[in-house]
Amino acid sequence: MNSSAGPVALTIERRDGLARAGLLATPHGVARTPFFMVVGTAASVKGMTPTQLREAGAQVVLSNTYHLALRPGEEAVRRHGGLAAFMGWHGPTLTDSGGYQIFSLAKKRCVSMEGVRFDNHIDGGDLFLTPERAVAIQEALGSDMMMCLDECPPARAERKEIVRSLEVTHHWAERARRAWRNTDSQALFGIAQGALFEDLRRESAQRIAELDFPGYAVGGVAVGEAVEDIRRIVAFTAPLLPDDRPRYLMGVGAPEDIINSVLAGVDMFDCVMPTRHARHCQAFTRRGPINLKNRRFADDPRPIDETCDCEACRSVSRAYLRHLSVLGEIMASVWITIHNVRFYLKLMEDIREAILAGAYSAFAKTRLEELASRAE
After folding, report:
1. How far apart are CA 361 and CA 316, in angstroms?
2. How do residues 17-32 score in pLDDT, each as one tens digit?
3. Which of 16, 96, 144, 257 is flagged as catalytic?
């Protein structure tokens, strides 16, 4: 089955329940789904070069529209050949719209039906984002996949606030769809919101799908909800999105959540957890996360994860990484970043293989049990 809308095309190779394995063709290359996008907010993945990303198995890098519009400015990126060339990645890229900053910079912005005005965090000056401006910035950045501007309210907002927010998001999506000019070279994704209300999620998914975007996202999760609510909403919403288009779960990145979300039919993921946790000496393993600053690793000769094939696990011990971590050496976060990113990408490779083998349910059960065991 192929999606033909816009410049990305999804071919579903195998289904296993609602889980899907496929190929997503983009102007900068083909990505095997399901996949995890490594986050390079300002056109840089902290702690890794593009070569290291490719060696780790990265397929798509995500960058942030808001931050790049402020520095160095989208026209500077355009002059240097677009985002992929500018950062030396040369592979597929996705840019978010700045919508998440409406949530994360709540004290520095004002939202209206027209758009959102930010007191930018660099110099306090104004940045006014409209749906049209968000599309124009992303078109200048040259990303393969762009996101509509949306409003992401806090998870526990009252229903009347969620209803108001949905009207803003749907109005903005219509305007973004009309503003989209590079229809042959960049795909625009619509975003379904609705917080924790299933009826609002259904309404949002339907209204966004009617706009016929090349791809769709589940937004507004991992913004303060309980884990059980995240999984419930994703399991409810993802199957409502068009079956022949890529489905993207925005900003949800715990390994357990990825495994469960693939069961619901999600194809694309991103999260800062692999890189951000690494900078705090937190490493992911098959048996759950560990903090390499802990004294118990001071004489531990094992690699971070004995099942991992990354450069860090082939090269250095937990004892050495604990030593670097305690000293605050930059190489501690570099080594752990290399491991964490590879851990995530290898997880996605394993997920894909399990789907293609028709064994995803059993795989998910086993891996979730391992992660829950905390046997380290």
Report:
1. 34
2. 999 999 999 999 999 9
3. 96
Tell me which of 144, 257, 267, 270 is the catalytic residue.
270
Task: Measure CA 205 to chain center.
Answer: 19
**H or E stretch including 24?**
strand 19-26
30 DSSP 8-state letter:
E
In the structure encoding, which two tokens stand for residue 18, read together?
């609602």
The answer to whether the pTM exceeds 0.70 is yes
Whether 88 maps to a domain, the answer reads yes
pLDDT digits (tens, 9 = 90+) for 95-145: 999 877 766 666 667 889 999 988 876 777 788 999 999 999 999 999 999
Same domain, 339 and 365: yes
pLDDT band at 281 (very low <50, low <70, confident <90, very high): very high
Last residue of a domain, one of 239, 271, 303: 271
Within this chain, do residues 298 and 361 fall inside the same structural domain, yes or no? Answer: yes
- The enclosing H or E element of 194 equals none
| Angle at CA of residue 220, ends 119 and 197, nearest 5° | 130
CA distance 107 to 64: 19
Given CA atoms 38, 41, 44, 46 in this order, what sign does their dihedral have? negative
Q: Count up the domains in the chain and report the number.
A: 2
Q: Would residue 96 show up in a list of annotated catalytic residues for this protein?
A: yes
Q: Would you mind telling me the total number of residues written for the chain in this entry?
A: 376
- Give the percent of the chain with pLDDT over 70: 96
Question: Is 184 considered catalytic here?
Answer: no
Question: Helix or strand or coil: residue 7?
Answer: coil
The kind and range of the H/E element at 144 are none
Structure tokens at 38: 């490594």
Report the pLDDT value the prediction gives residue 2, as an integer from 0 to 100: 43
Q: Do 217 and 190 form a contact (C-beta atoms < 8 A)?
A: yes
Looking at the structure, do residues 296 and 364 belong to the same domain, yes or no? yes
Give the residue from 271, 298, 333 where a domain finishes: 271
117 vs 108: CA distance, rounded Å:
8
pLDDT tens track for 29-59:
999 999 999 999 999 999 999 999 999 999 9
Pick the closest to residue 205 from 176, 175, 233 (CA basis). Answer: 233
Q: Which structural domain range is residue 54 located in?
A: 9-271
Tokens, residue 152: 């992401």
Structure token digits, residue 247: 């489905």
